[in-house]
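Data follows
____________
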Amino acid sequence: MAGASSGMSPRVAVLMGGLSAEREVSLVSGRECAIALREAGFQVIEVDCGRDLAARLAEIRPDVAFNALHGRYGEDGAVQGLLEWLGIPYTHSGVLASAIAMDKVKTKEVYAAAGLPTVLSVLASRDEVSAGHVLPPPYVVKPYNEGSSVGVYIVNPGSNHPRLAETMPATVMVETYVPGREMTCTVMGDRALCVTDIITEGWYDYDAKYKAGGSRHVLPADLPAEITEACLDYALRAHRALGCRGLSRTDFRWDETQGLAGLILLETNTQPGMTPTSLAPEQAAFCGYSFPELCRWMVEDASCNR
């Protein structure tokens, strides 16, 4: 972390909002982080990010940028490159890790190279998916470079091929559906924290993630020791293989009928949701870090040029 002016606490610019489909989620994360950082003793400037971001940062001259952006431009390496150019240390992963993790296809290639379990997926055009089954059902259709379960379709056996919304990108990812439990594990630096079991009525979609009562989090998850250890191991290996730093969160599906062979990695989020009740902060709290302490750790971990 860059040093603050002599005798003053560090100036932290909390980057939030942005231009992606996850703008509203980012605003919530950013505001909560700003409150926590002030409580932790930092000078905080909240920045709703637009295309004038470079000029605003040049004017603010923060010691650190706390990146609370989500989605495209915020967690795909774009704003990370801008911060590198400006020489401002920032939280979360660097340019390359952010870009790879945002691309679900590239992420799976890294997983496979690291010996981590995934399922079959292909890229297809929106027109191909709307014209017929690209994979045998059941399968999932989703953007290959968005988060927060934006634009996810599940196609079950016996169902017609989906008619995708015009808002879906021209190219999408079609992935074999994995039955079973939805779980996640946060990595904080070089430590995998714990495993959360996410309980929903159906698919863990955008509403389940962000609307009140949409899901229930059980942590630590009630799992066989072998599955817990595998989740912790896989999450840390994914974090390292992708080149992440700071905080990341890897999501899993587990088919209990298949034992360890039924545990599959879905994706790694380099900038997990950051409200006190979000999955990663919940796990940090379980491990003894209050929300302000977690945000302080992230600022102190911030860096540039790596």
Q: What stands out?
A: Residues 65 and 90 are 5 Å apart (CA to CA). The domain at 121-176 is CATH 3.30.1490 (Dna Ligase; domain 1). The radius of gyration is 19 Å.
